[in-house]
User: Fold this.
Amino acid sequence: MALPPSLTPGDRLNIIIGVTGRATTGSRKNAGSASISDVAGSAGVSLMTVSRVINGHPRVSEETRRRVLAAIRKLNYRPIRAARDLSRGRSRSVTVMTSNTTLYGRAALLQGIEEAARYAGLHTDIGILESPRPSAVEAAIERSCDPASGGVIVIAFDLAGVRALRAIPAGIPVAAAVEINNVKDSRAYPTAALDDRAAAFAATQHLLDLGHRTVHHVSIPSSTNASARLQGWRAALREARARIPEVIAGGWTPQSGYEAGQRLAADRQVTAVLCGNDDLALGVIHALRQAGRAVPDSVSVVGFDDVPSAAFYAPPLTTVRLDFVGLGHDCFALLQHAADPDSIMPEFNAAAPKLVVRETTRPPRRP
Amino acid sequence: MALPPSLTPGDRLNIIIGVTGRATTGSRKNAGSASISDVAGSAGVSLMTVSRVINGHPRVSEETRRRVLAAIRKLNYRPIRAARDLSRGRSRSVTVMTSNTTLYGRAALLQGIEEAARYAGLHTDIGILESPRPSAVEAAIERSCDPASGGVIVIAFDLAGVRALRAIPAGIPVAAAVEINNVKDSRAYPTAALDDRAAAFAATQHLLDLGHRTVHHVSIPSSTNASARLQGWRAALREARARIPEVIAGGWTPQSGYEAGQRLAADRQVTAVLCGNDDLALGVIHALRQAGRAVPDSVSVVGFDDVPSAAFYAPPLTTVRLDFVGLGHDCFALLQHAADPDSIMPEFNAAAPKLVVRETTRPPRRP
DNA sequence: CTGAAAGCGCTTACAG
DNA sequence: CTGAAAGCGCTTACAG
Assistant:
């Protein structure tokens, strides 16, 4: 355990008392914690006054506030969440529904949402979507959607998320992070998105500018035909009057990129590949290298996301940086707006996608 | 947005009704949702009976149960979390306190905890530790530790976590994931750990067996002198009567590994390096390569964790696989035990660390 | 500036 | 198998 060797467990109590000044006394009904009436009694005021102090209500005399605060400290009182939430009629927490939080984009998004929520005084809890099967989605909602929830943010980058979004019960404030913001859908749900289309366009353009005749694409699962990344990629190709190759459907993992890469490696026409994310790119590059097609000498590869490791891959990966944390902030702002329609529509502050050129792209070899 | 193009937003209502059979009617006080008494009224039974049905209580006649279920469906009723939690005296959620969830180990651990909690019918919420400063830790606890919480699991791999663990108010069930389980500390808190010491020992041993005279170490921040990884590394060196080099303190990121790698590259004595995690290893390798010291030709490198990408790095990384998801399960089991001391102590099921030899290690060059 | 009352929506005993 | 009562610990009106 990472305890400094100089501290023995016996120090625990000392530390708690030392840091917070709390006594460990006061055992009562509810798990040994003091209630608001205990504090009121101890401070010689009404329960209402304690409530006012806790909530930072202005109309409390300094003297009273001090007494109450002292009692709170003495009894080591903290409000019970459930009681507050129940009496307020709304819980003070947002739940984020998402599949697999270990994937970079979702993890960063979750971080952004949590930051914003915390800043606004809300807690974050997570509702995992195990599978896109309707019954699984339904179960996840049954489990995670409190009717008195402070709001739900669904990460609808994949089918499970899209389905969950549609099944959120009415009456719960909701917002979603989506792959692409189109007018039709944003009328149905408040949605926030990064400009994946522009990002894919820029990445493809970069490869074309280098002199590649066309650019192949290994897609992430979310990429249906309406996918923003696919759209941007196709648009750049079309604009350059380049041939539009068939999309190779990948998964989320390097392994699935590896498998796509093996197919790509077999095709001598392939000189440039745009991948749906960096993990995919890593796998693609590995397969290419194994097949004797070095990157970038023989084939150029671009990723998507700019995960923290991408700059240290060998070779360092050219990719598009996506501001998932910023998107998380935006989603939360959107949710706040959804919860209070009288509020003004928030501005989106997530950074625009940015092409980061590193060392996996270069002009094609002259035949 | 990732909606199939064939579906327009107008379909939303249809889908909700279609999938769940719910009516969208019934607007009442609390955010438009029906309460348990509404259901009771509609089904012509008492509120108690509805409660029994919801909670799967056995002593309810089939006929009654059916009627209640029908009313629940008709009114689209779902229980409000806060009300349940309050009346039960304990919330049905665990909160995971951790710093930065985007780091692989923590993300995987969180996933494991969430899985186990979900399986047990509990929700998971997250309490982020922004900094190890005592005031920040205290604030995080103030924010996240509901006195009626179902329990808290703290990820105490770093200083912030260790401090948080010690400051969890008495009366809240708690368990911790720690770097190393020692007898003293596990008497103070229920803790679960992976055998990092054995893992580091095995990794170091592997390098020594290859013929390296000694092994350098780039550590993650958690690694104090009592760190399990340091212990295992030192023990292996000592056993082999090898020189024990000074530890190079790294951070969590590839960038910090890169900086450590630059220092290592300058030292011609260095032929083998054990890194505190895979990200660090990636950075170290990058720096080494830039300095003209190829891996593994000139220097061998071993990581820690076996992140999903490690097998696809160039070269594929030799590392130690750690079962963080399993550790998460174990932490949750431990918490359950802490919440109910009469229960039997759970067995730990996390897989033992496993050295995965790939291509960043080989015998040192003959001078 | 302070307080007494009512109520949030459930569940836990206690009866029958 | 079913129900009437009391209460969980807060906050929201409403008074003063």
About this structure: Residues 45-49, 52, 59-61, 64, 83, 85-89, 148 of chain B lie near DNA strand D (CB under 10 Å from a C1').
